[in-house]
Every structure is written in C-alpha cells, then in structure tokens.
Design brief:
The protein has a single domain, classed as Immunoglobulin-like. 18% of the residues lie in helices and 50% in strands. The longest helix is centred in the first third of the chain and has 16 residues, at 2-17. The protein is of the alpha+beta class and 157 residues long.
Length: 157
C-alpha cells in the first residue's frame, strides 16, 4: 500500500515537471512567426497587389494582431506593409493576406525592368510582428526571390 502511494506521488510530481503539451503532442513553445511575400502583381494603375504570407512556427495556437514591415526590392525601399488582424492561427499554420501597396518610384521601376527582361528580383521584409495571445512582439527579417510567372502578365511569385 505504501509503495503504491509512493509511486502515485512520484508520478504526479514528475508529470508536473514536464511543462505543457500542445495539440501536436509537443511541448508548448511560442516561436517568432515569419512574414514573407507570396505574390506581387502590378496593377493597371501602377499599384501592387501583394499577398503576404504569415507563418506560425509555434507549437500552440497564436492570435496575431499587428504586422508592420517594410518591403525592399533589390535593396530599394518599396513601401510599408502594415495590417491589423485578429486571427488565431493553429500551430504550424500559414495564412495569406492580400493588400494593395503604392510602391516608391525606384522600386516600381526595378519591378518593371525585371518583368520586361523576364528575370527574378531579390526582396526583403524587415519590421515587427505582434501577437495578442499569447502576448509577444518579434522582429521580422526575411529575404527572398520573386520570379515572373509564365502566362500571368505582371505577376511575380
């Protein structure tokens, strides 16, 4: 009887040391998300429709609030990408967000030349992402490449 009581108490104590377990059977960890471009489409009025992809690398659901990053094309500032959201993203999930950007003239010319020549361009996003629950703020830094999409005029992915 005493041995069974001891083993039960030991099991309870060890279970308390393990930390939380998330929905995927992993320890609950909140990691910085990633903000990157999924698509850039030049519109008839010269504006860009950008699809921003936000990825949650945490092992738990995170409710994101504000994304505030700056887009650079080939090292040239293109403009701010700022949006407010109140979306709960499951562990490991990614969500696209559409928005319109009025690019700075030099960046617009860089994209126009790249599309005319059928070549890729390097881009970067730098700034901050904030979560509402669990609360957190993380710096964002991502560098990638956008390539013209064959058959879709003015679109890079």
């Amino acid at each position: 009887m005493l041995r069974a009581l001891f083993l039960t108490a030991l099991t309870i104590l060890l279970a308390g040391c393990g930390g939380g377990i998330g929905s995927q059977g992993l320890p609950e960890r909140v990691w910085p998300p990633q903000t990157r471009l999924q698509e850039l489409a030049v519109q008839a009025d010269g504006s860009w429709r950008v699809v921003v992809r936000l990825t949650n690398f945490s092992t738990v659901k995170v409710r994101y609030g504000r994304i505030d990053v700056r887009l650079d094309i080939e090292g040239t500032p293109a403009g701010p990408i700022v949006f407010e959201t109140d979306i709960g993203m499951a562990a490991g999930a990614a969500e696209p967000f559409d928005m319109t950007l009025r690019p700075h003239a030099d960046a617009a010319r860089t994209i126009e030349r790249a599309l005319a020549e059928g070549r890729s361009v390097r881009y970067s996003v730098t700034g901050e992402a904030a979560a509402l629950e669990p609360r957190g703020r993380w710096p964002q830094q991502f560098e990638g490449v956008l390539t013209p999409v064959p058959g879709l005029s003015g679109v890079l992915r």
